[in-house]
Amino acid sequence: MLKNQIVHLIIITGTIAATLFLKGCQNKPTITKAPDLHQKWELQAGDRIAGYEIISGLGDLSLELQGKAIYAPAKGKTTMDNRHCLYFDSPEIPNYLFRLCGLQNPTPGNLQKGDEIGKAQQLQFATLRQHPSGKWAIVEPSKQILEKLLKSS
Asked: Cα dist. 3→15, 34, 120, 142 in Å?
């Protein structure tokens, strides 16, 4: 009887250990430092006012997606910052980054054009362009890029 209980306990322990190991091997987003922006405003996304967090700032567009998905506009990769905003970068769209905040279960790493990046109730979107100095500036978003984000190819 005791021997059966020990064997059962070993099986359960092994199952739990294997599950935790596999969970740890899943593709996790890389946490990176947000790009160094050329513009500096007094109020920035992530700041707190009277206990409330600012979730978007000057230059961000807010899109009411109602839980729908957004898609990679080109072949590229994503990284995540400490605010859990995803940055999409593609060699097909050089010198631009697309910041996507508000995603639920975002897809980290390498993506093909049309792959789902994530879903959002409300998406905060910004387009960043890199200056020759290496700093980034928030610029007007492209209607074509937004359309590609919102429609699977």
From this structure: 19, 56, 51, 68
Burial readout 114-145 (b: 16 or more C-beta within 10 A, e: otherwise): ebebbbbeebbbbbbebeeeeebebeebeeeb
Pair of tokens at residue 27: 């593709």
Q: Say how far apart CA 56 and CA 45 lie, in whole Å.
A: 5
52-97 pLDDT, tens digit per residue, is 777 777 788 889 999 999 999 999 999 999 888 999 999 999 999 9
Distances (CA, A) of 75 to 4, 81, 92, 94: 54, 20, 7, 12
The single residue listed with the structure tokens 């020759």 is 132
Report the candidate in 92, 152, 95, 75 with the shortest Cα–Cα distance to residue 118. 152
Distance CA 85, CA 78 (A): 10
Superfamily of domain 57-150: Glucose Permease (Domain IIA) (2.70.70.10)
* Pairwise CA distance, residues 26 & 37, whole Å: 32
Residue ranges covered by each domain of the chain: 57-150
pLDDT band at 2 (very low <50, low <70, confident <90, very high): low
